[in-house]
Amino acid sequence: MDNPTKNHLKAETQLAHEITKLTQAIEKIEKMQPFAALRNRKKFFAYSFLHGLLVGFGSVLGASLLVALFIFLLRQIEFAPLVGSFVQDILKNIQPK
Fold first, then answer.
1. How far apart are CA 9 and CA 49, in angstroms?
2. CB 89 within 8 A of CB 73
3. Core vs surface per residue 73-86: b (16+ CB within 10 A) or e
4. pLDDT in the model for residue 36
5. What is the pTM of this model?
């Protein structure tokens, strides 16, 4: 039979190994760029500013594409007899003068 002390020693060795692996994983995560930027105020504000610019640009681009698609679909409906006059009024208001 195994000695209880030997089992405890084996369990402690495994636990120490797992703690070492966990410590290495935490150190690796701390060195990652997004977390490093959070520690430095200038980097954090620069990162936040750039993120805001990109989100704003993406929103404007997406909205522009949706409006263009909507106008394209309205032009296709223009030939429908019932809705055609209504769509023509909308297109007259949208187009620049």
1. 53
2. no
3. ebeeeeeeeeeeee
4. 64
5. 0.45
| Contact (Cβ atoms closer than 8 angstroms) between residue 79 and residue 89 | no
Q: At 35, list the tokens.
A: 């977390």
Token pair of 26, please? 């935490």
CA–CA distances in Å: residue 49 to residues 56, 58, 59, 97? 11, 14, 15, 37
Res 57 pLDDT > 90: yes
Q: Side chain identity at 68, as an amino acid letter?
A: A
* Under 8 Å between Cβ of 64 and 57: no
Rg (CA), the chain: 31
Higher pLDDT, 46 or 34: 46
Q: Strand, helix or coil at 83? A: coil
Residue 74: both structure tokens together: 């309205």
Place of tokens 């750039």: 50
Distance of CA 12 to the CA centre of its chain: 42
Across residues 53-65, what is the average pLDDT? Answer: 96
